């Protein structure tokens, strides 16, 4: 990289930098540049995959890729729900507890001898959705406009309920449908990955192709203006929390299926992974910005880092540090991506004048 | 005050009243506060239940048993110790779950106020001069786990180790004991990872172990709670890699009895520790002599030969409760 190019990347180049190109070339170049930058998280993911594949011979094996998709499925599902909440300027840190609570409810049904798989699935999803709706209700109708505080409180309530209902002990042995959902595979593709794919597709259609999808970005972008324009913002916010809760229920199905167990401590700490995945995926904590596919990619980035370090047998004492540094690195790459994106947008605006 | 607020206040008071141990006991009874870290898995629940049952045998002593929110929450323990000082308890019996170092200042302060301290399950070695410690024979149990492992896995083989809680002195002691017992076998430990006592994490780690080391010959997953996750990974991959653990929890015993990958579990004497802790604390409260250290001996390891009988007996005991 030449000194001039280095200066540009670091943002110290002179403002008048387009004089040596024609307008037409500029416009095409800027469009291509913006398109590339919007896929920033995907580039980070690809870079990480290349690095991990270079460091470990087993990383790109079919078996490990199957493992990777399965291992990432829980975080991905939580992140997809979390994205909706973050887009409407909220955050839901209770999802780990919701996951634990739904798992315990399924365990209790098993203890009571009730093994109908479809009912179990319905309980996972509806219990999660109800809990999420309660979060949304408290934030919107309960007059507590601090989502973090509300969901910190319900995080405690959810975990407490899980411990109380289970008596603190694990139940081992889940219904076969749940086992398949967490551990099965179809034509070599893990069922949890198929579940995540289906959920991603549904949410992508909801957010990109429906009026509700436009509403959530409108509410996240500017809630007051959205309200003036007739968007039912309270119901939009509550629906996002409800979907986030339902996603936690689906993650609960995967957890219970993977472990064949209902532990009241299931999902502890996963809320932070979910939020991190969404932010790595380029969403803004200030709302109004985010993409379903990028949230999924954010979850995969975390999964690739964890899986890669694990394959390399990084000492557990170093693993936590390495993961933290890797996540910071990924976030800094995203900061750089946004900086360049803003520069290119400014240049595009100047070119249009 | 509005009706809603009044209702909320009384509801809160009712909840707190239900959560706290009763204080309506005779003032002249000696008082013991038994502190557990949390009740989040079968091991602590079984120990706690045994303590509660044992406590009913001593109506002449007020024995209050409390449990916290998670395994190593030092703030909770310190609050409980301060409660003991405020409410004039005579004895504190504490299972610190691995947070001992942070508790010494508070415990020393309690001792300075005349409260006697009993450590149980995990001892208080640095708190010199306290009344007593009731400990599990960790070197013995981990040695037994190592011996059984050595009997299954050949010399020089590649093995994986999964911890339950990184930095927890108990876990470290078990792992060190296991390594010492197997050092003659010259195993190649290809991965030493932390599952945080979470079966899902243990499954992930095991899957990665199997991928990165196709010729893996054995896994020692320190406690049953996470070994359950390893078992699922081994089953799903159709692997024949043997698995060993410590715990003797019901599902562990049942899995060993089935004769699959899970080859043994060395039972942790949860009930015995819970009972002896109460008995020792009662003796201390009555100013009777106690040993400075009581070691609870290693229980018979569970293998496919005896695990079913153990599981049946334990199931009956748990059902009775």
From TrEMBL, chain A:
It is found in: Cell membrane. Keywords: Cell membrane, Membrane, Transmembrane, Transmembrane helix. InterPro entries: ABC_transp_permease. The chain crosses the membrane at residues 36-56, 68-88, 95-112, 118-140, 147-167, 187-208, 236-256, 262-285, 292-309, 315-336. The keyword Iron-sulfur does not apply. The keyword DNA-binding does not apply. This is Ribose transport system permease protein. It comes from Rhizobium herbae.
Automatic annotation (TrEMBL), chain B:
Gene3D superfamilies: 3.40.50.2300. Residues 1-26 form the signal peptide. Keywords: Signal. InterPro entries: Peripla_BP_I (IPR028082), SBP_2_dom (IPR025997). Residues 32-288 form the Periplasmic binding protein domain. It is found in: Cell envelope. Pfam families: Peripla_BP_4. Belongs to the bacterial solute-binding protein 2 family. PANTHER family: D-ALLOSE-BINDING PERIPLASMIC PROTEIN-RELATED. This is Ribose transport system substrate-binding protein. It comes from Rhizobium herbae.
């Amino acid at each position: 990289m030449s000194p001039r190019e280095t200066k540009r990347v670091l943002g110290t180049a002179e403002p008048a930098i387009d004089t040596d190109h024609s307008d037409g070339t500029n416009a095409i170049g800027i469009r291509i540049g913006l398109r590339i930058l919007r896929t920033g998280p995907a580039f980070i993911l690809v870079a990480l995959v290349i690095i991990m594949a270079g460091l470990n011979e087993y990383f790109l094996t079919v078996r490990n890729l199957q493992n990777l998709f399965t291992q990432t499925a829980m975080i991905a599902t939580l992140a997809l729900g979390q994205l909706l909440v973050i887009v409407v300027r909220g955050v839901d840190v209770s999802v780990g507890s919701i996951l634990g609570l739904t798992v315990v409810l399924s365990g209790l049904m098993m203890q009571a001898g009730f093994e109908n798989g479809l009912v179990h699935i319905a309980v996972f999803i509806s219990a999660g959705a109800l809990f999420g709706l309660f979060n949304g209700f408290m934030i919107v109708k309960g007059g507590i406009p601090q989502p973090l505080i509300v969901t910190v409180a319900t995080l405690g309530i959810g975990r407490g309920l899980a411990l109380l209902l289970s008596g603190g002990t694990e139940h081992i042995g889940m219904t076969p449908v749940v086992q398949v959902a967490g551990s099965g595979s179809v034509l070599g593709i893990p069922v949890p990955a198929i579940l995540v794919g289906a959920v991603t597709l549904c949410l992508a259609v909801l957010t990109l192709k429906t009026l509700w999808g436009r509403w959530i970005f409108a509410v996240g972008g500017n809630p007051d203006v959205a309200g003036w324009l007739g968007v039912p913002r309270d119901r939009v916010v509550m629906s996002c929390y409800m979907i986030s809760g339902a996603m936690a229920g689906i993650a609960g199905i995967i957890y219970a299926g993977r472990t064949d167990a209902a532990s009241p401590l299931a999902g502890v700490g996963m809320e932070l992974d979910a939020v991190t995945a969404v932010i790595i995926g380029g969403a803004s904590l200030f709302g109004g910005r985010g993409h379903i596919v990028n949230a999924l990619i954010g979850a995969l980035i975390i999964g690739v880092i964890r899986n890669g370090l694990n394959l390399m047998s990084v000492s557990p004492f170093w693993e936590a540090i390495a993961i933290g540094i890797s996540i910071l690195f990924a976030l800094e790459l995203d900061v750089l991506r946004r900086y360049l994106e803003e520069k290119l947008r400014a240049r595009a605006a100047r070119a249009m004048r | 005050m509005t009706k809603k607020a009044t209702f909320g206040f009384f509801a809160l008071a009712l909840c707190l009243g239900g959560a706290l141990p009763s204080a309506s006991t005779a003032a002249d009874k000696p008082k013991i506060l038994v502190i557990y870290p949390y009740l989040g898995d079968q091991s602590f629940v079984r120990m706690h239940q045994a303590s509660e049952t044992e406590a009913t045998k001593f109506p002449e002593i007020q024995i209050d048993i409390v449990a916290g929110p998670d395994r190593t929450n030092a703030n909770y323990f310190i609050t409980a110790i301060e409660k003991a000082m405020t409410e004039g308890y005579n004895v504190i019996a504490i299972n610190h779950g691995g947070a001992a170092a942070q508790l010494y200042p508070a415990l020393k302060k309690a001792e300075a106020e005349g409260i006697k301290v009993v450590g149980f399950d995990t001892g208080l070695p640095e708190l010199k001069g306290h009344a007593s410690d009731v400990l599990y024979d960790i070197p013995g149990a981990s040695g037994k786990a190592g011996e059984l492992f050595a009997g299954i896995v050949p010399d020089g083989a590649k093995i994986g180790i999964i911890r339950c809680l990184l930095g927890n002195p108990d876990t470290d002691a078990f792992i060190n004991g296991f390594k010492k017992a197997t050092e003659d076998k010259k195993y190649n430990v290809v991965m030493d990872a932390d599952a945080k006592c979470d079966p899902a994490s243990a499954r992930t780690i095991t899957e990665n172990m199997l991928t990165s080391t196709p010729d893996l010959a054995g896994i020692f997953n320190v406690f049953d709670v996470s070994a359950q996750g390893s078992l699922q990974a081994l089953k799903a991959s159709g692997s024949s890699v043997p698995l060993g653990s410590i715990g003797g929890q019901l599902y562990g015993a049942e899995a060993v009895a089935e004769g699959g990958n899970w080859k043994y579990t060395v039972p942790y004497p949860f009930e015995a520790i819970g009972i002896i802790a109460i008995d020792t604390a009662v003796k201390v409260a009555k100013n009777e002599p106690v040993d400075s250290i009581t070691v609870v001996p290693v229980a018979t390891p569970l293998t496919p030969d005896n695990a079913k009988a153990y599981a049946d007996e334990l199931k009956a005991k748990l059902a009775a409760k």
